[in-house]
Each structure stands twice: as structure tokens, then as C-alpha cells.
Design a protein that fits this description.
It is built from two helices and six strands; from the N terminus they run βββαβββα. It is an alpha+beta fold. A six-stranded mixed sheet has the order 1-2-3-4-5-6, with helices on one face. α1 runs parallel beside α2.
Length: 123
């Protein structure tokens, strides 16, 4: 559960979020938008989804989300890439979809499966 947030703008196209959990572990969320300026609504959506991912694995140290518009005139032109760092592992998922929200959802589903595999290996 996320208790408080500390936001910092790195540049016009970078956005950092540090989420403080009940255990005082901090997950750094870095959102990078390429060839466009992401809205605050999109940032809030990504933060909400990543906080749900943290429920599956509380050892997540950092999450990096890269959003890119590939070709503005084509269908499925939104490329979403999510990289999650946990001690000893680096997980990555990349999807191309019609919307960034759809891409984030699909990437996080893939990452949940990867986290479950890692969790099963530890048992």
C-alpha cells in the first residue's frame, strides 16, 4: 500500500516517482515519454498500475516505463516498454498497441507472470 509520494521532474520528458510503502521500502518509478508530452492522467494511471504490481512482489526497487510514439499516422503506433529491477533480477516487457494504457496493461501482465516464475523458483 502506498502511503506518500515524492515527485520530481527530471526534465520536460522525464518523470520520477518515489513510492513509500508501509515497510519504508522505496520503489522508484521513472516514466520517460519520447516524441510527445505525457499527461498527468497517464502518469497517474501508470503509478496506479505499478503500485498493484508491487503487491505481487514487495522487493521491487525500481520501475522504468518508456512511452514512445512510433509513427503518428499509423494504427498501433504506441510503443510501451517497462523494466522492473528486483535484487538479483531485471525483468522487461515491451508491447506496441493503439493506446499507452493498453500497452501498460499488457506489459504489466507479462511482468506479473515473470515475477510469479521467480517466486516459484525461490520456493
Amino acid at each position: 500500500m502506498i502511503n506518500d509520494f515524492a515527485f520530481s521532474r527530471v526534465s520536460a520528458k522525464h518523470f520520477n516517482l518515489f513510492a513509500r510503502t508501509q515497510n519504508e521500502c522505496i520503489m522508484e518509478i521513472k516514466i520517460k515519454s519520447i516524441h510527445f508530452d505525457a499527461t498527468e492522467q497517464l502518469h497517474a494511471f501508470i503509478e496506479k498500475k505499478l503500485s498493484k504490481l508491487e503487491k505481487n512482489n514487495d522487493r521491487i526497487v525500481k520501475a522504468e516505463v518508456s512511452l514512445k510514439v512510433v509513427k503518428p499516422e499509423t494504427v498501433k503506433n504506441k510503443e510501451t516498454s517497462v523494466r522492473v529491477l528486483i535484487p538479483g533480477n531485471e525483468l522487461h516487457a515491451e508491447k506496441v498497441c493503439d493506446t499507452f494504457e493498453e500497452g501498460v496493461d499488457l506489459c504489466l501482465e507479462a511482468l506479473k507472470k515473470q515475477l510469479e516464475k521467480i517466486k516459484d523458483k525461490r520456493k
